[in-house]
Input
Amino acid sequence: MPDLVAPLTTWFRVHARDLPWRAPGYGAWGVLVSEFMLQQTPVARVIPLLEAWLERWPTPTDLAAAAPAEAVRHWANLGYPRRALWLHRAAVEIRDRHAGAVPRDVDALLALTGIGDYTARAVAVFAYGDRHPVVDTNTRRVLARAVDGRSQPGPPSRRDLEAMAALLPEDRSEAAAVNAAAMELGALVCTARAPRCDACPIAHACAWRAAGFPDTGDTRRRQARYEGSDRQARGAVLRVLRDATDHAAPWDSVIPDWADPRQRDRAIDSLIADGLAEASDGMLRLPR
Output
């Protein structure tokens, strides 16, 4: 599919969003933190918290020296707070295994806590300029439609990396641009619910469009509704602990008026199991 590359990169040069982590010299640590924060979280919520985070902890060693509770507290409203613990543990590993420098090698990155195929390759490509396929949800959707003629991608698989690798030019900087362009196209144009095919630079080569936009089904896992969920209860508990003196509060004082007491206790138990809270002597606190 070589005819996808030139129109993708041409479009990207004109339409790419001005995002902090795309600035020259942003650094591998900044890219790594941004990728942790961007998992299942909109860009607009990430940017201000990312800037504050990097001002507070400009290097992995700075974060590693802080208490895990501080990482959880400053994760604020980003959601999925286990990512804060994973990032803290990754910072400790970077300090202890790599002398405080974010590694470049994909396998070394994959060995860090909380880092999977996408994040490892994103750091290697966007921070270090190496040539690897980088595949996120948006890229998978572009590949599913343009290459495979499907309305939505199937479950993630190694085949996604292989399909993206087949598109990449040999030149490392051009390959990085194609990776970024495919992600951006999926985020801005080839969206899940309302694709803007009239604005798509690769519409002429899109297999889904050529087939008449068939509905090939959607096997993506649906996220449970947030309102009234255990996730909402967990978030409420963490807010209390983040705001409490010394990040600790009597167990019985943590959201005592929650509509479902069993759900509240279940949320607390799950936070303790995940290492996001600790309990002792009737007190609940953020991890030390």
